[in-house]
Amino acid sequence: MKNTLTPVALLSLLFLFISCNNSQEISDEEIIQNLNGYWKIHKVERPQFNDIKEYQFSNSAEYIELYPDLEGFRIKLQPQLDSTFKRSSKAETFAIKRENDSIKMHYKTPMDQWTETLISLDKDEFSVQNQQGFTYTYKRFESLAKELENHE
């Protein structure tokens, strides 16, 4: 019997290697540069319920601002047709920390605190997983007019 790795075993090893080194591959500057800005929810995956909800259109956006010390805030907004925004809630402050080969976002409000793990991040999309195992994927928000145009 040959001592070779099957394609499945190779893919498993590759995935393990990538996931274990994910937080080391992205610099603090890349996190700040890619995460800052306006975002819209794209989909929510809830594996324990075997459920994926995709959002073709969203009438809300989120603004994230992260500072060089990896602390920042996130606020929900309601985009207007004239390209302005109405604030729909108070800002949630957060801090990013590297823990156990992953990147964690620690949120704190006067009423609650929670942690999300950054799964993926680039200039156009990012995903986080919360403590319940739900994965939230966001895409870069352009404007409400563009959203309506894409939805037609």
Output the keywords.
single chain, 152 residues, alpha+beta, Lipocalin, 8-stranded antiparallel barrel, 3 helices, 10 strands, 23% helix, globular
Report on this structure.
- This protein is α+β, with helices and mostly antiparallel strands.
- The chain has one domain: Lipocalin (Beta Barrel).
- The protein is 23% helix and 45% strand.
- Strand 6 and strand 7 form a beta hairpin.
- It starts with 6 loop residues before the first helix and ends with a helix.
- 10% of the residues are buried.
- The N terminus is likely disordered.
Structure, briefly:
The protein is an alpha+beta fold and 152 residues long. It has 3 helices and 10 strands, in the order H-H-E-E-E-E-E-E-E-E-E-E-H. It has one domain: Lipocalin (Beta Barrel), CATH 2.40.128.
How is this fold's topology laid out?
Elements lengths: L6 H19 L2 H8 L1 E10 L4 E4 L6 E6 L4 E9 L5 E3 L4 E8 L2 E7 L4 E9 L3 E6 L4 E6 L3 H8 L1
Antiparallel strand pairs: 1-2, 1-3, 1-10, 3-4, 4-5, 4-6, 6-7, 7-8, 8-9, 9-10
- Which bin fits the share of residues in helices? 10-25%
Question: What would you say the CATH architecture is?
Answer: Beta Barrel
User: Which band does the percent of strand residues land in?
Assistant: 35-45%
Spatially, the strands of the biggest sheet line up as: 1-3-4-6-7-8-9-10
Q: Count the E strands.
A: 10
Spatial shape: globular
**What low-confidence regions span 5 or more consecutive residues with pLDDT below 50?**
1-22
CATH fold-level assignment? Lipocalin
Radius of gyration: 18 Å
Element-level helix/strand string: HHEEEEEEEEEEH
User: What is the domain total for the residues?
Assistant: 1
Main β-sheet description? 8 strands, antiparallel, barrel
